[in-house]
Amino acid sequence: METLIVTTDFSGSSVHAAKYAAAISSPLGVRTLVLYHSYSVATPITEVPLPEPEELASAHEDRIRALKILESQISPLMAHQVSVECVTDDLPLLSGVEQLLKQYGGGLIVAGMTGKGGVEKLLVGSHTALLAGSCRAPVLIVPEEAEFTPITKAVFACDLKNVDETIPTHLIDEIVEKLDCRLLVLNVETTDSRMAGDVIPEQYKLHEKLNHLKPEYYYIEHGSVAEGIMAFADTQQAGLVLAMPRSRGFFDSLFHRSVTKKLAHHTRLPLLLLRSE
């Protein structure tokens, strides 16, 4: 994991995410931390004209200055061997991130959660939700309450479906080994969908893939997969939650407006959304 790509809109939550990324860059063995801002202008649906080239040039310069200020804020949290690069352009956010992933040969995307302002007061901002749902790279979502302390426990939420084909073992290995943390493997079943008979073979496969990390395994029931995972991680005083976006009901539940207030009690925990191998 040599590259962290930190998306920022210069909001308080995104600045906090950048600081968090800086703090974990050294233990993760990161070499390059990219601060990225997209000032994409949506295609107008009215007769309002697009910005003139000189206006775009001015916007670019302003964003670079803002990124440099952000760089100065996060530098004290990083080891000297980590280099920072400031990138801004007018590409749509997802396209810009995908371009950076190609340029750096992959990486981990870091994004912040929204604050408590705004009319809808959503837990996760639309840009972060876009990255989480569509980006091909793993995405680390950092809440404003996340502390810059060593991670001693990480919870990996697994739904026991097609374990052999989906679980990104190498990435989990890298995170656990570099952070030197305990791994807690969790499966949450909703009360109205108890474990089926074919779950036992998947459990064996899961153990085969992860036993070398000496994890602890937990199987629980909860009315909501998302709430069950975050509440369990909170109770265990974990410092990080790893989950697969395809997990049964988890992704939809996390970004559903009616659930955000219930999850608000657990938003101190960074959430790493993994991608299938």
Give the key terms.
single chain, 277 residues, alpha/beta, ten-stranded mixed beta sheet, 10 strands, elongated
Please give a structural write-up.
The chain is an alpha/beta fold and 277 residues long. The chain contains 10 helices and 10 strands. It has a 10-stranded mixed beta sheet, sandwiched between helices. The chain starts with a strand and ends with a strand. About 10% of the residues have low confidence.
Summarize this structure briefly.
The protein has 10 helices and 10 strands.
SSE diagram, text form:
Layout: E1 3-7, H1 12-25, E2 32-38, H2 53-74, E3 83-89, H3 93-104, E4 108-112, H4 126-134, E5 139-142, E6 153-157, H5 163-166, H6 169-179, E7 182-189, H7 199-210, E8 216-221, H8 225-235, E9 240-243, H9 250-255, H10 257-263, E10 271-273
Parallel strand pairs: 1-2, 1-4, 2-3, 4-5, 6-7, 6-9, 7-8, 9-10
Antiparallel strand pairs: 5-10
